[in-house]
Design a protein that fits this description.
- This protein is mostly helical and 145 residues long.
- The chain is built from four helices and no strands.
Length: 145
């Protein structure tokens, strides 16, 4: 197998793994939301640890993909990835293009779920502050004597 074929094989495999990992992340983010609603700190921490591991793996593959794009002298962006697909056989090229579109959709959904979870946490924090009589306006104001 030539170096070019090896790099293309890596891209192909990595995109499949990314697709699976983002699907897994979608489920974990939905599960995380339920545990946040219940304020189940143990489960929230467990899911966050799993998410962190997943994010590291996805990040490594993205970095590897960037290096491959550089090796092919393509732009290190979505356009470069689409140009990289031109190196594949036409039948596989179409499949990879669909995977890339689906991957983008899953990334957007994960970001949206993450934002929703962040808003929930923020609202819970504000509610707790009100219940405990703490006000954020006094946190950074020097006390007057």
């Amino acid at each position: 197998m030539s170096r070019r074929e090896q790099l293309l094989s890596i891209v192909d495999e990595d995109l499949g793994r990314d697709l699976a990992d983002y699907q897994c992340m979608l489920g974990m983010m939905a599960e995380l939301h339920q545990h946040l609603v219940r304020r189940d700190v143990v489960q929230v921490n467990a899911i966050n640890a799993q998410l962190s591991t997943l994010i590291v793996s996805i990040g490594r593959r993205a970095a590897r993909r960037s290096k491959i794009l550089v090796a092919f002298r393509l732009g290190v962006d979505g356009g470069g990835v689409l140009r990289l697909f031109d190196y594949f056989a036409p039948s596989r090229r179409a499949q990879l293009h669909e995977i890339w579109i689906t991957l983008g959709e899953r990334v957007r959904l994960c970001r949206q779920l993450n934002e929703n979870n962040g808003r929930l946490l923020s609202m819970q924090g504000e509610l707790l502050d009100r219940v405990l009589g703490r006000s954020s306006e006094h946190i950074y104001t020097p006390s007057l004597i």
